[in-house]
Structure formats: structure tokens, C-alpha cells
S8 family serine peptidase (Streptomyces pseudovenezuelae), 434 residues
Amino acid sequence: MSKHIVTGALLAATLTLSAAPAAFAAPPHGWELSTMSVPAAHAMSQGEGVTVAVIDTGIRTDHPVLKGRATEGPDFLKTNDKSQPWYGEHGTAMASSVLDVAPQAKVLGLRVIREEDDPNYQGGRMSNPDAVSQAITYATDHGADVISMSIGSRTLLDSYEVKDLKAIDYALSKGVTLLGAVGNLGDKRAGQDNAISYPSAYPGVITVAASTQDGSRASFSSVHSYIDIAAPGVAINEADSRSSGRTSGEGTSAACALAAGVSALIVSKYPDLTPRQVEAVLERTASHAARRYSAETGYGVINAEAALQAAAKLTPEKKVVVGETGTDLHFGPGDDGTPKTYSQGVDSFKVGVSAVGALITLILMIGGFWLFKSGRRVRAQGSWGVEPLGPAAYAQSLQPSALPQQNPYQQPAPPQQNPYQQPPPPPGQWPPRQ
């Protein structure tokens, strides 16, 4: 969900070396870190002791931005293509954004999807439909404190998965904070359909939208009532996996990775807070939390310094599993009745499938009615002796062998007289006289 732009636009002042340990001196960055008050937040936390799992396209651990701070777990696609130039392009960029915000954190890369440059790319479909659930479970069991998912599916047959939801439930029960990118399908002028995208739409996942430098929604960022917060998503200075340097990228993917980095700062400083509490402090301290909720940017752009200050005032809660009382507080504002402030648009693919299904149903109903009427007509004809025996059977019934046998010694019975029948009138008289 990240759009890479190979330009050097909007690069601004650098972080001072004192803002991060000398071993991981922060590189020149754009506007994103200062907008989220990250330099000020580094005085309180830099992500020490926290592992952030980046569930994505894989990562290049030897990239200078990641080196010494990243490891790679299993490839859940079970391929052997790490030597290809396109491998880990998106995942490496996301990992760099996490580490820019939380320079003392560790990144665990887990591959679940292919790059668009991959010749085996399947248009966003999953070659292993269980990859996301497997990666979430693996990350949880291998020490991840935060899970960043800058991925998404939007097709009818590759979207909501019960296994994914159960894996998210499992991670939350272990105190793992999960974040997901809302998607890049919000630009109606470009013909985008604003489709719902998973895993960001699952309950318990902190959903992140992309913002511009003035705090408004980036034009491509999808609009949904389950969005929680926003983070910078345009002109992001991220690692370029094809070189040893950086490039400028955009997308809700980048916003999600930056938000995951801020979450790592909070979890590092206050490790006993639950995922719901991490979400709560991000929302309550975001840029327009005091004004109103928006389905475009949630409660607004993250403020890392304010979130850490608010987290200091919280008493850790009991970890809550999805499905128990109170878990609605994990979810986005759409679950508590917050009105939508922007049309969500229409998923054209799902509308088309629904229309085809309705047409097939109508044809079946018409066919069933025709068969029902035909059956009644057959039964009606059968009562007159024409059907279902048919003309041939009817002709056979007229053969002498089929007629009743006459006794030659039996006198014919006289015709029965109806005592109530009036004799016919004389010729020419009508009506008959009474």
C-alpha cells in the first residue's frame, strides 16, 4: 500500500546526533517525524527492548538503514527468490520507517505477499491464503510486541478470513499491539472504489489513514468509519531496497509503519499497557481529538510526545480477548455509533457479483414457476383421460378386448325414467306449458 516516488522532494532538516544513539545516527528525514513530534518523544523513549514485526513482502536485512537492527523470519510463501532485485522492496521501506521513529527497536520481517514487480504477482491475491494468520501467530510466539501490517486485500474471495481474525485475537490476548493500513483506494476522481480492506478492517487492529503536511487526508487514502488515527503518508523518506540509499514514497503503508514506530515508543516505555490502552492514548492525543472524529483521518495525526505523556498517567488494564465484554473499546469509532462524515463509496466488484447472483436467482425463480405451472397443466389433462396415458393408450382403450363382455342370455335393461322429467312439448310449442 505504498507508492514509491523516485525523487528527492521535500527533504528537510536533519535530526541531531543527540536525538538518537551514536550507533544508529538518524539520517536526513522529511517532514514526517517533526509533524508527529518524534524528536521530542525521543527524550522519553526510543523503542528500547521492543520488537516490531513487519508483515509484508520480506526485508533486506543488509540494507544500511536496517543493518544490525533487523532479522528475517520464515517466508510464508515458501519461495526461493531472495536474490531477485525486486525482493523485499516494499517491506524494506516499511521497516525503515519503523526504525526512523523507534531507532532502538528491532524489526522482524515476515513475508506474506509478493511485490508488484514479481512476475508471479497475482494482482493482490494471496498465493498462500493462510500466510497472514500464520505470520501473526509466528510473530506473537517469537517475541513481537507490535505488529505492523502495511498490506491489504480487496477482492470478494480474498478478504475476510476467520483464521486471520483468530490469529489477531490470539495476539491481542498476549498483549501485542497490531496496526493496519486502511488502503489507497479513496480517490474517487481517479475512479477508485474505496473498498474495505483487510486486515485493517478486523476488530482489534489500529487502522491508520494517510495525511498530508497540513493534517488533511491524502487524496488516495481510503475513507471508512473504522479508521482510528492518521500519520504522514506523502513524500516519506524511506529506504530504497535497490540501492544503499533512500527514496521518496507515499501511501497508507508508510503511515502505518510510522504509527507502528510510535506504538513501539509507547510499549517500550510502558510495557504493561494493553493494546486497547495504546490505541486509546494515540486517539486521545491526536491532532483533532478534542474537536471531532472524522472517517477520513480518525482522531487526527499522531502526536508521539503527547501520547507518551498521556500513557504515563494510565494504570495498566487486564488484557482482554476479542469476544469478551468491553472489547468494543479495541475497535474503531464506527463500532460506537460515530457518524460517518464522508461517503464510503461502492465496491464495483462486489456490486457486479451481487447483480449476477440476483439475475441467476431470478432465472431460477422463473424456471421453477414455469415447471410448477406445467405440472398443474399435466395433472389437469390427466383427469380427462388424455394425459398422462397419451393418445396411443387412449386408442388401445377402444379395442374390443378392452370393452366389458356382454352376456348373450341377459335381457337388456329398460331405460330408467326420471320421475321429475317433463314430457317434451308438442311440435311448434315453446316454451313448454306448466
Observations:
- Confidence is low (pLDDT under 50) at residues 4-27, 324-347, 383-403, 429-434.
- The first helix runs from residue 32 to 35.
